[in-house]
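Researcher: We're teaching a course module on how sequence relates to structure. For the next exercise, students receive a sequence and then see the predicted structure as tokens, so they can try to spot secondary structure elements on their own. Here is the exercise chain.
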Amino acid sequence: MTHIATKRPSYLFAALGLWLAAALSPAIAETHPGQDQLVSEVAKETGKNPRTLNALLDGAKKQQSILDAISRPAEGKAWKDYRPIFITDKRINDGIAFYREHRDLVERIGRQYGVAPEYIVAIVGVETFYGRNTGKYKVLDALVTLGLYYPPRATFFREQLKVLLSLPDTQLGGPLDTLTGSYAGAQGWGQFMPSSIRDFGVDQDGDGHIDLHDSLPDILGSVANYFAKHGWVTGAPVVARAQPDAAARPISVKDSKPQWPLEQLMAWGYAPLQAMDPGLPSSLQTLEGPNGSEYWFTFQNFYVITRYNRSPLYALAVHQLAQAIAAGVHEQEASR
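Model: And here is the predicted structure for the students to work with:
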């Protein structure tokens, strides 16, 4: 019997060649460390196209200036040096002008959320000088840099990057790769991080989008909602000056959360300089002022401001700016 050799179809050899080439060639390198895993998580949780997500991340750049900036935050200063940054005649006067120009909107939002309107204005005053300085960095660059190249806080910033990539278009305020903000990736007049946009941003103007860059109702409404959701108490105090006696007990606190009734701090040697409810939940901050140590009773609303920025210096600056704005508005109206 004659044996006839069987001829293999040429396409089988071609397919085998392609398989071998793929198996032996190195995998395509990810642009940023951890990018593949991040994209996989976002795609799985949101259904977004991995190719689109990779294209966004491929276009982001690590920025050394961001790594430099996060290593020297203003909150590392003493109160005597920090306060003059934010409590200036111009910031106060511009805040008064902003309040008066947008009074109906600011006060309507304040009533809706139960938050004193001067504090809503003071937040955008401290954060971005009433919208003038919202940040020059691409938000995507900032969060890629800090989330994938900054080990000390990579967990936090990677999560913010993940949230940013997961947000629907209605919460972005524009194409994701065009958004700009601070070196930390905060956006808009109120400098919201992605998780804050997701959790506290509101569509105050009812147009179907949350726009923290160009919609003043959304901007102010989101700040007020942030305070309300974190427990702002309508009409309650924020801080009060305290005067220690010679035998006052030294007090150190880890954060600004109220820990004792005011009467307990009074019993430990700290007297309020104004009449106050002795049962108010309170804490105490000792700050380095221009004339020596300053002692401040702090209350629930002070703690709420520190949910926006954990620094007690920040919270006190917001409070003092708010008080100056409210006083200026009242004074101008009284003189009319």
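Model: If you want an answer key for the exercise: The beta strands are 137-138, 180-181, 239-244, 260-261, 270-272, 281-289, 292-298. The longest strand covers residues 281-289.
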